[in-house]
Amino acid sequence: MVYTKNYYRILGLETKSREHLDQDDLKKAYRTALLGAHPDTASASQGGQGKNEVYTVDDVKEAFGVLSDATQRVEYDGWIAGRGVEEGREGFLLGLEVLDLSDFVAGEDEGSDAEVGGNGATGPQVEWTRSCRCGNEKGFRITEKELEDAEGRGEKEVLVGCEGCSLWVRVGFDVEEG
Ligand SMILES: [Zn+2]
C-alpha cells in the first residue's frame, strides 16, 4: 500500500480533531465528499488545477475505506505523523530502509495486457516489485501510476508498505524527462 494522498483533506476533515473522529463523523464526511466528487479521474485532473482541489469518487472511496478501518487508520495516521503531510519527512521516515527503483524488479502488470492503441490508449502498466523478508515474493509493489501521481505533486519518493506484513520502505525515483 502506498499512501500518497491526504485522506483527511479528501473527506474535508483536515481541521477536525482526529482523536474524536468516530464512525458517524466519517460516514457524514464521506457522504458530503461523495456529493462533491468527480465521477472520473480525467475530468477531475482537468478541472482541479489551482483553485479548489477536486477529488474523484475513487479518491473519496479510498479515503473512507482506509479511515473507517481501525487497523488501516492507525497505519495511515502513523505515516501521516511521520510525514507531517506537507512538511518535512522526519521521525518515522528516518527509521525506514531507503531504496530506489533499481532495487526493484520491473515488469508489466499481468492484469492488463492491452496493446497501445491509436487514440492515446495506454499500454500495459509497468510495475516494480520486490520481495520482502516476510517471504512475500512481491510484497512491495509500485505501479507506474503511483509514480506518476507522486511526480505530479513534485515528489521524488514514495512510501511502500509490504502487502504481507507491516514493513515499510522509502523508494526514491528519478523521473526521466520525456
Ligand atoms: Zn513483508
UniProtKB/TrEMBL annotation:
Q: Does the keyword Acetylation apply?
A: no
Could you tell me which pathway this protein works in? Protein modification; peptidyl-diphthamide biosynthesis
Signal peptide segment: none
InterPro entries (UniProt xref): DnaJ_domain, DPH3/4-like, DPH_MB_dom, DPH_MB_sf, J_dom_sf
**What PROSITE patterns has UniProt attached to this entry?**
DNAJ_2 (PS50076), DPH_MB (PS51074)
Indicate where this protein is primarily found. cytoplasm
Q: Quote a single Gene Ontology cellular component term.
A: nucleus
What are the GO MF terms of this UniProt record? metal ion binding
- Residue spans crossing the bilayer: none
Localization in the cell = Cytoplasm; Nucleus
Q: Which UniProt keywords apply?
A: Cytoplasm, Iron, Metal-binding, Nucleus, Zinc
Cited function? Required for the first step of diphthamide biosynthesis, the transfer of 3-amino-3-carboxypropyl from S-adenosyl-L-methionine to a histidine residue. Diphthamide is a post-translational modification of histidine which occurs in elongation factor 2.
Sequence similarity? Belongs to the DPH4 family.
Quote the protein name from its UniProt record: Diphthamide biosynthesis protein 4
Organism of derivation: Massarina eburnea CBS 473.64
